[in-house]
Amino acid sequence: MSLLLINEDELRQTITIAEAIETVKQAFMASAEGHMNMPGSFSLHLPDVQGKVNVEGTYFSQSPYYVINIDSHFRKNPDLNLPAENGVLLVFDAATGVPVAVMVDNGYLTNIKIGAAGALAADYLANHQISKAAVIGASKQAFMQLKSLTSVRQLESVWVWDASPLRADNYVRHMVEDHDLNIRIAPSSQAAVEQADLVIAAAESEQPVIKAAWLKPGVHITSTALDHQPVKQNLEPEIWQRADLIVVDSLKQCIQMGELYHAQRAGVIRYSDIQGDLSDLISGRTRGRTQADQITLADITGLGSHDTALATLALEKALFLGLGQRLEVGIPSQGFGVGVGNLL
Q: Are 167 and 97 contained in the same domain?
């Protein structure tokens, strides 16, 4: 028996952003239709090193595979010149339970799934015609959100702001290389947000960097969380009061680690103020924007089931493209004898 080992560089060759968006959309639909089996997750906390490990398993009906996803976030890793996010996905044959592949994605699929969910939120909530976008923060997720957004909306200009001018400059340089965008650095977060038809909130901040008074009518805001801890905060709580339509990817997760966590603590929102989750929106059970001047807000934390959906697509494409390394792990025993020799 052999396992296919697929690393991050190979995974990056298998899935385009457009494919990721469609795959995540289908995963939301499967969830809305009751075709997803995801019994829950458990976490390991390592407080001495500010680490957290999450383990989840997911199976979609009729899928050839089920996937166990192990992802971690160690906040001190950047001080060691290591990525804060790491991950391994274990893929199994759904008919036999035999392990098929190991994907060492270093958080890549997690990053791309949140970008895809953000693009879907924008596609269903933002006005169809938008010209200016603001990106607050120059984090890894800020890259993925803007890359994904360009798949669903055409932008005339993008303003970027980060607390670090160096990070903002690096962000602009990379985005210009990858996309034909009119993108520039804003002098302040306020200057970026005030003119924006769409705001991506992805700053590495523990204090609000976007205020309610800056939002113009009709703006859509997508806020993202990546580190599985309710530390980061981009939005002033009053933004939740100004929003006419609020959607989350998972109410349970957003309460624990999204921007919703801070809004709830500030007492500015009730659960009844949230119109639903993205699966409700995509399946049509929740209405989206009905007026051009409505302010819409999406809180995105990333669902483990979407790692499974993307891993399944990545495996199929890796097999087609001949990517990955085969590891021989021996032939499983067909039976178990009673002799002592069988135990050695």
A: no
Which tens digit of pLDDT belongs to each residue from 176-235?
888 888 999 999 999 999 999 999 999 988 899 999 999 999 999 999 976 555 668 999
Residue found by looking up tokens 């959906």 in the block: 309
Instruction: Say which DSSP state 215 is in.
Output: P
Biggest CA pair distance of the chain = 77
Q: For residue 183, what are the domain limits?
A: 125-300
Sheet with 132-136: strands ordered across: 183-185, 157-161, 132-136, 198-201, 220-224, 296-300, 245-248, 276-277
271-297: pLDDT as tens digits: 889 999 999 999 999 999 999 999 999
Contact 233, 207 (CB under 8 A): yes
Q: How many CA atoms lie within 13 A of 157 on its CB side?
A: 9
The residue type found at 146 is: L
Phi (first) and psi of residue 221, to 5 degrees: -120, 130
**Same domain, yes or no: 266 and 289:** yes
